[in-house]
Design brief:
Elements lengths: L2 H8 L6 E3 L25 E8 L6 H4 L1 H6 L2 E8 L4 H11 L6 E4 L4 H6 L7 H4 L4 H4 L8 H7 L1 E2 L2 E2 L2 E4 L3 E6 H4 L2 H11 L9 H11 L6 E2 L2 E2 L16 H11 L16 H13 L12 H9 L5 E5 L2 H5 L11 E4 L4 E3 L2 E3 L2 E2 L4 E5 L6 H14 L1 H6 L10 H4 L2 H8 L1 H16 L1 E2 L7 H16 L5 H19 L1 H17 L5
Parallel strand pairs: 2-3, 2-4, 15-17
Antiparallel strand pairs: 1-3, 4-16, 5-6, 7-16, 8-11, 8-12, 9-10, 13-14
């Protein structure tokens, strides 16, 4: 029995391996872009795909017939969402050859590419004929293409999920005449989706109601909340960084000195802490699912969430607020006379080829098929959590209109386009997993009331310096300065 088979068998207790999957519940083919499948591999080959468990692996099921036409059998290995980094790192370091296609969160690209774990893709991208090999990288929005697909000037990954956070709000409540009049009387201004984080708190306070109170002319049978947060340990740091980045906070200066405990950062974290009084009492346990559900089940006026949630909110089989959702810019911070908006791009997903794969050509055919050939179908269906990341997807109103109607689809895509223009990346240099985890741990300390925002962020700064020193300060300074140049080229910092 080969080492590869032994490795796969050893993972059965932690992951589900699905062989020769059959297409099911697939979205309709839109034939949105021209492409050709790779010539069939003869004899056929098996490509093992790994990723976080759940709906974001469905494209490998949707298009099983296409993979079969290329002589490719797909085996899917699912790992828990929070374990992706550790699982991949363990297999990479062990050189097990367990995986061919690896799906990961792009903040890890600096770590994985710099250590030689990923196969460079530029040689595949430029092969002829272009209809077979070219994934049209110019169509990929610049923040994903330049920050999350490349490292050291080479392409190592293709985006399949354009995660960015957007403001989502109950359009029907904001347009209700009684609520508009009450807000005007209480606050002396028009009721509008919040443009700043101070306005966010004001609107959240206004819409928070107890059971028995009235909301838009109806008596509530359960509490209603003005806002909610992703406050669970894992990615709560991104909800904090929306606020901090809009106030001008940068992770590090040119010499890797942390900027995370500045007065602006402390005020940003205090704003997040203050929001909890207008959120459900169990909000510290809220991750993606809980934050989605409190909104689409009609129990919160507004949330900041990933851009797949409006698709689910538009689906009457999942949502109680179909047709009632507005999408807008994440609130910002008034800097001088200008409101600066920044939308974090947490998680996201990219696909790459493991450097120790022995079926690299077939693996490339798989990632190109999901990242380009079928990408519009993959991001426009509520069956996945994948979000737009290409210009052509944002321009394809018809793909989304089938779900939410043309007017709502147009507004949704316009909101996404604006959010993506405001996009602000996670740390993506080597050590990103450690830096982000340290920040998330301390954000949670502040949210739980165990530390003040200042104490929590001071602790982050100390821990970040320890991480930088452990990885080699000079080497980290060099890669961080390259990252800063990318930020400047995209207009994220001056």
């Amino acid at each position: 029995m080969t080492r590869r088979i032994l490795v796969l068998l050893s993972m059965l207790s932690l992951a589900l391996v699905v062989g020769a999957v059959l297409a099911q519940d697939a979205p309709a083919r839109l034939n949105a872009v021209p492409y050709e499948l790779c010539p069939a591999f003869d004899p056929g080959v098996t490509v093992t795909v790994v990723g976080d468990a759940g709906h974001n692996l469905k494209p490998y099921e949707f298009w099983a017939d296409d993979f079969a036409a290329m002589g490719i059998t797909i085996e899917i290995v699912e790992v828990p969402f929070a374990d992706v980094y550790q699982k991949l790192k363990t297999e990479f370091v062990g050189q097990t050859g367990a995986f061919d296609v690896v799906t990961f969160y792009p903040a890890y690209i600096g770590d994985f590419a710099s250590n030689g774990y990923l196969e460079p893709l530029d040689g595949y991208i430029t092969r002829e004929p272009a209809a077979v090999w070219d994934p049209m990288m110019d169509d990929v929005l610049a923040p994903f293409r330049e920050l999350y697909n490349k490292f050291g000037g080479q392409t190592y990954a293709l985006t399949i999920d354009g995660d960015v956070l957007v403001l989502q709000y109950r359009k029907d409540l904001f347009e209700n005449a009684d609520e508009m009049a009450a807000f005007q009387a209480q606050y002396g201004r028009e009721l509008t989706p919040p443009q700043t984080w101070d306005e966010w708190l004001q609107v959240a306070e206004f819409f928070t109601r107890d059971a028995g109170e009235t909301l838009a002319g109806e008596t509530l049978t359960e509490p209603f909340y003005g806002a909610s947060e992703f406050a669970r340990r894992s990615f709560s740091f991104a909800w904090f960084m929306n606020r901090a980045a809009s106030a001008g906070v940068i992770y590090f200066d040119e010499n890797m000195n942390p900027g995370i405990n500045s007065p602006e950062a402390v005020a940003a974290l205090q704003n997040m802490v203050d929001t909890l009084q207008f959120a459900p009492p169990d909000v510290l346990n809220f991750g993606y699912d809980e934050l989605r559900d409190i909104f689409i089940q009609g129990r919160a006026a507004m949330v900041v969430q990933w851009t797949d949630v409006p698709k689910k909110a538009a689906d009457p089989s999942q949502s109680k607020i179909a047709g009632k959702v507005g999408v807008g810019r994440v609130p910002g911070t008034l800097v001088g006379d200008t409101i600066v908006h920044r939308s974090m791009m947490p998680v996201g997903r990219v696909v790459a080829i493991a450097a120790d794969s022995d079926v690299k050509d077939a693996a490339y055919c798989v990632i190109k098929h999901v990242a380009y050939n079928t990408s519009v179908e993959n991001v426009s269906t509520p069956l996945t959590g994948l979000d737009p990341y290409r210009t052509s997807q944002l321009e394809n109103v018809g793909a989304f209109a089938a779900l939410m109607g043309e007017e709502n689809a147009t507004a949704y895509l316009a909101g996404l386009e604006q959010a993506l223009a405001d996009g602000f990346p996670e740390i993506f240099i080597p050590g990103s997993a450690q830096y982000n985890d340290a920040l998330d741990a301390e954000v949670n300390e502040a949210l739980a009331g165990r530390k003040t925002p200042q104490e929590a962020l001071d602790a982050v700064a100390v821990r970040w310096n320890e991480i930088t020193d452990s990885l080699g300060r000079d080497a980290q300074i060099a890669v961080w300065r390259q990252a800063l140049e990318s930020y400047r080229a995209l207009g994220l910092i001056e």
